[in-house]
Amino acid sequence: MPPDFFDNPALFRTALEESAMGIYIVDRGQRILFWNRGAEQIIGHLAHEVVGRVCMNHLACDQHGQTLCSDDCPVTATLRDGQPRKTTVFYLHKLGHRVPVKIRSQAIARNGDAVEGAIVLFEEAIQPPAETEAAMSYGCVDGVTGVPSHRLTRAVLGEWITAMQESRHPFGVLRIRVLELDEFRSRHGPQSAMPFLQTTARTLRHNLDRESFLGRWGEDEFIALLPSANPVATAAAAKSVWSLVAHSEVRWWGDSFPVHAVVTHTVAQPGDKLEKLLNRLEPAHAAAAGRAVSRARSGA
Question: Which of 92, 26, 77, 23 is nearest to 53 (CA)?
């Protein structure tokens, strides 16, 4: 390494700028001073869009959809007491979906004096499921959302049921429906629903682990399969998925719209047949969708 490397601030900045890991730096008032290309790639916001703004708290939430602010924010806590923090948060991507990221905040101080700012490093916590890559090789990818098509999803669900009869290990099934898209289509045209479906698919893909499967099920629906799940874990996954989808948003002609969705769940047990499993989901799904639409229309 050249002897003048450590005396050249430009080289240090370039190294930070080109890192695949997301990196940003804030001052004592949480104003963003630096935003690298890794951060741009992970959550979509470009440097010129965020530098000079106050922190990213409004874009981050926990797994329950609660916005991180003041004492709940790890960066705020680090600025307050100078201690590093490690945690997982869910950033709102520029495209509207939620991305889970592992972050580490570290205080910046000169010669051990008072904290002057913080550096935040982050990377995506969960890689999208690998099923989409396999589906592409069969030409069975849904053209709108990029996830496996209904035909392939039904085939995979049948394969999971067959494998379960041999292994005797149950698995979880989530059915996710995006609500009120017919009404949105009638007002804004048939193509207007596509961003809602794409945003929902991205949120789901970024928050399901690689062993899970996600596919298109109906016009406005998806199905996710969770390996080796029990009723408690499946219910918790359904709640987490619903919260993250519900805290996503879509931009349409300059306006921002929330994503209304309903998530129902069940656990496939040895002895289940495909139609029996689907029939078990149907009544709960219809009832939950009805309640969710009623709440949305009443302003709840």
Answer: 26
From 97, 124, 151, give the residue that closes a domain: 124
Burial of 64 (C-beta count, 10 Å sphere; 0-12/13-18/19+): exposed
Secondary structure class of 17 (helix, strand, coil): helix
Environment class of residue 154 by beta-carbon count within 10 Å: exposed (0-12), middle (13-18) or buried (19+)? middle
HSE-CB for 42 with a 13 A CA cutoff: 26
**Which tokens is 280 given?**
């078990």
Q: At what angle do helices 181-188 and 194-207 cross, to 10 degrees?
A: 140
pLDDT value at residue 277 = 85
Going from the C-alpha of 86 to that of each of 45, 98, 179, 187, the distances in angstroms are 22, 19, 36, 45
Phi, psi of 41 (to 5 degrees): -70, -40
> What's the CATH code of the domain at 194?
3.30.70.270
User: 87 phi and psi, to 5 degrees?
Assistant: -165, 175
Distance CA 108, CA 110 (A): 7
Domain boundary among 98, 124, 150: 124
DSSP assignments along 66-135, one per residue = PBP-GGG-HHHHHHHH---EEEEEEEE-TTS-EEEEEEEEEEEESTT-SEEEEEEEEEESSPPPTHHHHH
pLDDT of residue 137: 46
pTM for this prediction: 0.66
- Contact of 141 with 132, CB cutoff 8 Å: yes
Counted domains in the chain: 2
State the average pLDDT over residues 31-53. 90
